[in-house]
Design the sequence.
């Protein structure tokens, strides 16, 4: 369940070549801390960052599911697999 304490990664101003490293580290760190959901903020002005974020999430084995936030299309909500 999303709350004001849900971890967020803000990618505004980041270059596309850094997205994979930043997103994968963010997912790994929050998995270790026991979070089941995180938010990635990519903005909604262009789809370049959004598309790259979604490519990275699709390949990440720790991601169970991801989808755009219906209330803010500049965010993607990510459900993380539980740590084994």
Sequence:
């Amino acid at each position: 369940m999303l709350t004001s304490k849900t971890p967020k990664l803000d990618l505004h101003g980041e270059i596309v070549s850094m997205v994979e490293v930043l997103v994968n580290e963010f997912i790994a760190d929050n998995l270790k801390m026991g979070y089941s959901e995180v938010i990635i903020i990519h903005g909604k002005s262009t789809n370049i960052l959004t598309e790259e974020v979604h490519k990275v999430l699709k390949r990440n084995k720790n991601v169970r599911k991801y989808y755009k936030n219906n209330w803010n299309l500049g965010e993607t909500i990510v459900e993380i697999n539980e740590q084994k």
About this structure: The chain has one domain: 8-80.
